[in-house]
Amino acid sequence: MKTAAIRLLLAAAVLGAAAAAWFLHGTREEAVAILDPARILLLRTPGGFLEVAALEKVEEFGWSSRYTCPLVDCPSLLTPTISRIRVRARFTYRVPLAAEWKLVPRADHYVLTVPEPQLQVPVAFHTEDMQIQTTESGWLSPPAAPNREAVVRHLGPQLASRGSDPAYLRALRPAAQQTVQEFARKWMLEQGGKTSLPIEVSFEPGAAH
């Protein structure tokens, strides 16, 4: 009885092995992509600037002018003329393209350090919906026309100063990082690279490559 059972088990094992051999025929071999820790990829760029982000925002500025007196403190007595200007500005930020960028390997990704985005000046703004309002408070206030001209003349520097504010740079940072990532990834594909490793973008003031 035991002999029959053993023969039955052996037969089952032989049949199972034969079935497995029929189903699992052949092998598939391929290389496992491992990042070489000593390999640094160089992204050769043509120079110039890469536009990385843009921010459109309504901005408002004011300009005040009043008469002065040589001997007494008349500005505190005389009322000013004030003009306010309201424009829809478009702040565009760019990253300078050096001769080459370095993709430095880490454990499971690359690190690409590039200079901080720079504001493109002069800042563009829409003129079709620009609004200017001027207030004259008295007959001893300066005339409105020169004051209105002054607020328009100082609009460019005021927009440049506003666009360089750290809060604006923090707001656009994620979009700028994504643009640089896409640029680097596209370059790698054009050069025949097929790595799927992510690219971490770091901005560094005054970074040189």
From TrEMBL:
Name of the protein in its database record: DUF4230 domain-containing protein
Signal peptide bounds: 1-19
UniProt keyword annotations, A-Z: Signal
Record keyword Signal present: yes
